[in-house]
Records
---
Amino acid sequence: MRYGFKDIQRGFLIIGLVGVAVISSGMINVLPANAAVTVVTFVENDSLADQVYATQAGTTSAPLTLFDNLSPSFTNTGFHFVNWTTNADGTGTTYSDGAQYDFTLGNLTLYAHWAENAVTFYENASGSDTVSAQQSSSTAVPLTLFSNLSPIFENQGYSFGGWSTSANGSGTSYANGATYDFTLGDLTLFAQWTPDTFSVSYDANGGTATSSAASFTTGSAPLTLPSASESGYSFDGWFTAATGG
């Protein structure tokens, strides 16, 4: 009878009569005694000097350990996890979080691929409006000014009135150009719109009208135009030019 143990990159194999007990990322799995154990090594990869890693052992096809379940947990301030790649610089073969891996293919090293945290701005001109822009950073910086967003945000008859984390304006408010600490994570902001008020003046053009001026606010009830009269003529309606048309 032979007993022993072997350290495999922070994963441990305990060999006994019944098989192999694999301790990987805090989990214990008993594998058949004749199984060829393969180890996948996950590397945090937040810098060239980063030595934080976790392992997963297996003998058959199985899902890779989910990023959120790795032990120790992986972090990279100002960035969020995107996927895994076989090269530290993000090149090579890509594996999604929890992807299926055939452990019979052999040992594998996967490097976390990170992206800067992002703020997503939504035009929010209507419930179905999908126009958006994005800003990425990993530090505290001013949000992109509304007038500098690309594409340009528009909502005819309304003026921009700031940002909110809720489309209906009930969430946290952010002023135009406010500083946001991107190390806190991703953020979604919805444009808030203030109805415009328009002044309307009526020129009876030689006749008389029941009103000479009015105002109209976007979204309010339709404006009722006044009547007008002139001796010897029938009223034909209001126009934006004195000559009609």
---
Amino acid sequence: MLKKHSSEFSVFGNPINHTKSPYIHLLFAQQTNIVHKYDYTLVPFNQFRKFITNFFAYKGIGANITIPFKEEAFLISDELTDHAKASRSVNTFKKLKNGKILGDNTDGKGILYDLKRLKFIKKYDDVLVIGAGGAARGIIFSLLSYGCNILILNRTIDRAIKLVSDFKRFGSISILSEKELEHSSFNVIINAAANVEINRYWSSISFSKNKTAYFYDINYSNNMHTPFLSWCISCGALMFSDGIGMLVSQAACSFYLWHGILPNIEPVIFQLRQN
């Protein structure tokens, strides 16, 4: 059954009950004194286009898209920003004055802001990205543009090959095999896959070679201990973070696309950590 939205903004995904986006956007609205009604929508796996069409036909102005619909969102956009075109993945929609839907991707800007904020990244760093889906696509363009050397590890080799092919014109990116992982070291290791998909790789990361690496999970949890980070900590990782900062940063970029004002990110990250 399609949802009748009372809000002009919503995040669409499946699963979605865990989302912190409505609370983040409430804090943005309070901070900027902008009326900004935002909620969340659970979308059946085969009905994304129908739900989005209904949302914008009724009251929708802007939408965020999360797992697993980011690549489908790219396909149904009427117009695309440069970030979305490069990523072939969309996490933000905006209804334009002519009624068309603009697709953008703010994930890359969000993670780069957060990695800089944490002092986790420098230009020319070797960065291992685990995953080759829509989440990975959203962050790689910004990392390559910053000057990082990207290595991709993914359980499905065909998806990794396609991702490397799509992004190689933007910088240094290549595929890393599971066997190579055992003997490799990196400056930053980013989990951009669902936790259930990466269990097989954890034991192959050499902590003796990566004890000074920064570990970053784009997933997040209330106590920062996602399954991936909990395992890293148990192995002796010293520098790690979940993706709360990325979540807030990419949300702020979406808010800016819709309203033309960029909220202050730091107090919102602080508030989420306190809660």
